[in-house]
């Protein structure tokens, strides 16, 4: 049996970076056949059809079928995994409420279509921004599916954070573990090194030898660098993060299906863990066990960390309120 994967916004940049890696087995491994469903809006169909032609020319052993459509009922039909990339970007002069409203108009209907047409085991990863609140809207609209089946991508933020720690310590990135992201996939996020290790040794100790006052380094260098990395990429590259975002999305979905041997980060529904209001889609340190994300519980958050988590969570609450005011939730 093949796994059916739906990718929305498949005619866009991240879609293009995702498709060929998935077809090559990077998500599900070298033994699992894949069926791809590329869901676009009419303006994006030609680009998605072009990508489908190239997938054909890739002659991938694992790729059984590719379907391109602008009909959500067809796009999500039988989906075991859905990567929701297509979203409405913020246009010039667009207020945040307008942005949330436009995206509610996408993720509400997609949540409903997933509930109606996807496979019973469907797992949804929202990449399109504002990812956490879009995931919340999709989950709330997917009657009959548990909210745990909907997640928001914060793995790119975690990867950025691990890479920054590795660079600061002049250590290989593979030696850095446990750098979770808390809160929203936005500039308020809190990348947390307080439990991180480098080759099993506390990162905080290693940093103290390198950067002097660790708190100052975290506040003035590390956290802003990670939180604003997306803007830095746009400035240097002239275009937003694409390949690194696709890579993170593949890692997130792969770990969800195949499990983790340590913590990672994902935007998942809160049941009140760490005081995060129930129902919010917040990033937490998580493990994936038997196909389900589990929030890592019992971690100490000192006053400084608590304030940062609270600030990011407050932004998620505001986004939820704004969406509720639109009558969407
Ligand atoms: P893009 O503009 O190249 O592609 C977006 C595609 O989505 C377009 O082809 C468009 O036609 C399509 N689309 C729009 N509405 C749709 C709908 N209702 N159904 C299906 N398709 C639809 O953008 P790119 O670079 O691929 O980025 C996509 C999204 O990913 C953006 O919202 C971006 O902010 C977000 N992003 C999220 C990251 C994360 O870490 N969570 C990291 C980087 C980007």
From TrEMBL:
Oxidoreductase found in the keyword field: yes
Annotated keywords: NAD, Oxidoreductase, Tricarboxylic acid cycle
Binding site for NAD(+): 9-15, 103, 110
Keyword NAD listed: yes
Active site: residue positions: 185 (proton acceptor)
Positions that bind substrate: 90, 96, 129, 160
PROSITE patterns named among the record's database cross-references: MDH
InterPro entries assigned to the protein according to its UniProt record, in alphabetical order: L-lactate/malate_DH, Lactate/malate_DH_C, Lactate/malate_DH_N, Lactate_DH/Glyco_Ohase_4_C, Malate_DH_AS, Malate_DH_type2, NAD(P)-bd_dom_sf
GO molecular function: L-malate dehydrogenase (NAD+) activity
Enzyme Commission (EC) number: 1.1.1.37
Ranges where the Lactate/malate dehydrogenase N-terminal domain occurs: 5-143
Source taxon at top rank: Bacteria
One Pfam family recorded for the sequence: Ldh_1_C
Catalytic activity line of the entry: (S)-malate + NAD(+) = oxaloacetate + NADH + H(+)
Domain named Lactate/malate dehydrogenase C-terminal: residues: 154-323
Functional summary from the UniProt entry: Catalyzes the reversible oxidation of malate to oxaloacetate.
HAMAP family: Malate_dehydrog_2
Family: Belongs to the LDH/MDH superfamily. MDH type 2 family.
Name assigned to this protein: Malate dehydrogenase
The species this protein was found in: Microbacterium profundi
């Amino acid at each position: 049996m093949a796994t059916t994967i739906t990718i929305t916004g498949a005619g866009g940049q991240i879609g293009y970076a995702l498709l060929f890696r998935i077809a090559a087995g990077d998500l599900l491994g070298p033994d699992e056949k894949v069926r791809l469903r590329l869901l676009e809006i009419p303006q994006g169909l030609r680009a998605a059809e072009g990508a489908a032609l190239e997938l054909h020319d890739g002659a991938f052993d694992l790729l059984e079928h590719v379907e391109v459509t602008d009909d959500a009922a067809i796009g999500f039909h039988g989906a075991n995994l859905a990567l929701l990339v297509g979203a409405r970007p913020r246009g010039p002069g667009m207020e945040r409420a307008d942005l949330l409203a436009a995206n509610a108009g996408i993720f509400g209907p997609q949540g409903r279509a997933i509930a109606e047409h996807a496979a019973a085991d469907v797992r949804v990863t929202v990449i399109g921004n504002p990812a956490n609140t879009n995931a919340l809207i999709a989950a709330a609209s997917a009657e009959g599916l548990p909210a745990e089946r909907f997640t928001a991508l914060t793995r790119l933020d975690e990867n950025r954070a691990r890479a920054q720690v590795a660079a600061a310590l002049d250590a290989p990135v593979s030696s850095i573990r446990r750098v979770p992201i808390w809160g929203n996939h936005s500039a308020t996020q809190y990348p947390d090194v307080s439990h991180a290790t480098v080759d099993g040794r506390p990162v905080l100790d290693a940093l103290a030898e390198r950067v002097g006052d660790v708190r100052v380094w975290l506040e003035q260098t590390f956290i802003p660098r990670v939180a604003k990395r997306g803007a830095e990429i746009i400035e240097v590259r002239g275009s937003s993060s694409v390949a690194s975002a696709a890579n993170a999305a593949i890692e997130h979905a792969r770990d969800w299906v195949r499990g983790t041997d340590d913590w990672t980060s994902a935007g998942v529904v809160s049941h009140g863990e760490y005081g995060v209001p129930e129902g919010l889609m917040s990033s937490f340190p998580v493990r994936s066990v038997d196909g389900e994300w589990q929030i890592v519980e019992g971690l100490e958050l000192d006053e400084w960390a608590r304030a940062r988590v609270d600030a990011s969570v407050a932004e998620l609450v505001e986004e939820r309120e704004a969406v509720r005011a639109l009558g969407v939730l």
